[in-house]
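Methods — Computational structure assignment.
A single polypeptide chain was analysed. Its primary sequence is given first, followed by the predicted tertiary structure written as structure tokens.
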Amino acid sequence: MISIYNSKKYSINDMNIVKKCKKCGKDFKIEKYRENTAHYCSRECYWKDKKKTQDQEKTCIRCG
């Protein structure tokens, strides 16, 4: 019996894409299905970028 799942052999390279990290600019590989959700090469870059946005001064809506 021939399985339809084995009709084409997929390699790891077919299922991965390369993106640039939003924080450090380093290239990193991710699975193709995570293309729209992955923006950082590591958790370290994610937390550094998140901390940067939290440290910014914000203007009060009421008193300015």
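Note: The beta strands are 16-20, 27-31.
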